[in-house]
Amino acid sequence: MPVFQRFMTSILPGPALRALGAVLLLALGFPVLAATPVTLQLKWTHNFQFAGYYAALEKGYYRDAGLEVRIEEARPGLDVVGQVVSGRADFGVGNSALLLDRHAGRPVVVLATIFQHSPAVYIARRQSAAQSVHDLAGQRVMVEPAMAELTAYLRREGIADDRLTVVEHSFNTRDLIDGKVDAMSAYLSYEPYFLDQAGVDYQIFTPRSVGIDFYGDNLFTSESLLKARPDLARAFRRASLRGWEYAMAHPGEIATLIHERYAPAVSRDFQLFAARQMQSLIRADMVEIGYMNKGRWQHIAETYEGIGMLPANFDFAGFLYAPDGSADLEGLRAYLGLTLALTALVSAGALYVYRMNRRLKRSVAEAGRAAAELQAGEEKYRLLTETMLDVVWTADAETLRFCYVSPSVERLLGYTPAELIGTPLLGALDPAIADEVKTVIRKGVDTFLSLSPGTPVFRTDEFRLPSKHGDGVWVEVLSTCCRNPASGVLELHGVARDISERRASQARIAHMAQHDMLTELPNRAVVSDRLSQALAAARRNGHRVGLLYIDLDRFKPVNDAYGHAVGDQLLRQAAIRMRGCVRESDTVARFGGDEFVVLLPLIDTLADAATVAEKIRAALAAPFHLASLRVEVSSSIGVALYPDHGADEAALTLHADAAMYAAKHCGRDRVTVFSLAA
């Protein structure tokens, strides 16, 4: 902050007094220093997507940093990167395509990441129940400039770039609502609100469905500005992130501000919708806003490389801003440790050694006895850590590198202690969660430092750790943060316990609670839950839900003639055939005996449900070959639709069952649709 500003702030704390002080200083002949003008170029129209920048401006954070900021919204066809690189704007908001711009010779530098998960998706008008992203081929699609991750999504799905009829993005959802286009690139925090308000049935296609999970809405500048004005970049970044922290902590206030001053044509309700959607994308509860990791950017670059959008070995030199000389140290503190009992043991042992050393200094006469006691204590501790199954470890809280790992780690992971000591603690984790764990560590250490000395802070987590000779091991980590009583150094103490068998047992129990053990099909409880969800979605979106009730004809004679073992084989094969007749989103379940149910959560017409039912009937009518036997059965299938034949779960199930019995009474081996007149 300039000297003049610091002086004014110290003597004139309020806005009115500052203004008065400025007038007095002018009268006395002092020059008033002007704030540095700065332009921020957005990538979209004014809305909560850029809430942090409005908050920084309106709360005075930019002014306090000596900046006079103008925020420019985008317009159709605008090249945001071009605005910044050319100097027409000082800073901009861009997505992961900044990597491609950097490779193309446009010297951009990413200052901070706002969205940990990009909200970019394709949204299309729903045209059929089985619609997929491949249906975008040949359709009119509005695509926002620089949405490279969506291009990557299509390429990974095997859809060539030229298969879309690309239309310039109008930034107006109305074009999709009115049918001027079939689909559009969009944000989860924006377009769904307007489509819901208009009652348009739509389908969202997200890159995350194929593993493309990129950063979103990155604050960036040009390399030339950063070199010429590093203090300006630092001040703007700091004030902006301060604004983002305020905006996400006070969404109601900022939503009102945006509605009243920046986007009066859009309701405050929409701004609050965007704020809610952004919570899970920004993850301010887990990651410090603005945090980014080179390893994550490397993964993004490798994804682009894999589909031919970047060459191999992208050069990151100069691309990522390091505020204090190291991007990896920003927001990094440590927190992981030991259980209460082991922490007490380690601390007591360390304190014991410390006291013994003091006694040695005080009295040479006691040296022999103290040494013996010290040796006995160390032997007990060594015996404990070397024979227990759990792995005890300590790490330096500053460097996050292992200082000690007990020998039991070789039984758990295959690594010797020598192979791990001195290596990064986070290197033992899946890279996909390392960033989040790093942030949790930092918050844990900050919490520990904020408490009274000696107050314990404990945490329990579950992780899958890579092993030396296998796929990995699930462990439960009990941890704490404490100071070494002898050195005063902040340390992380932890114990890791193998819980692979426990997790496998839990998975088996959960599976058994929800599935029929003979056919492996979902059971009645699962169907009831899914039917309830399907009906809620149908009421909201106005589509139909189909329910098929299926009973095998002449199954009992098979059981009686050949025994239950053959009957069980028949039921298992029947289940496989029925699953082969439906979509992945549909549910085939066994209700008991030879009764089955098929849930079609999203269909357009009665004919769609009847077609599926007839396909199942034909599949079950084909002969079954069971060992040396050739067995023939058929099926009676009842069909009921929401809302045509029932408005709730009970009515729909009852009417599908009634239609099935009507099929039996009419001669079996047929499909019958429920009729109120029957």
From TrEMBL:
It comes from Zoogloea ramigera. Signal peptide: none annotated. PANTHER family: DIGUANYLATE CYCLASE DGCT-RELATED, SLL0267 PROTEIN. Residues 543-676 form the GGDEF domain. This is Diguanylate cyclase. The chain crosses the membrane at residues 334-354. GO terms for molecular function: catalytic activity. The lineage of its organism: Bacteria, Pseudomonadati, Pseudomonadota, Betaproteobacteria, Rhodocyclales. GO terms for biological process: regulation of DNA-templated transcription. Residues 459-511 form the PAC domain. Residues 377-448 form the PAS domain. Keywords: Membrane, Transmembrane, Transmembrane helix. InterPro entries: DGC-Regulatory_Protein, GGDEF_dom, Nucleotide_cyclase, PAC, PAS, PAS-assoc_C, PAS-like_dom_sf, PAS_fold. It comes from the Bacteria. Pfam families: GGDEF (PF00990), NMT1 (PF09084), PAS (PF00989). SUPFAM superfamilies: Nucleotide cyclase, Periplasmic binding protein-like II, PYP-like sensor domain (PAS domain). SMART domains: GGDEF, PAC, PAS.
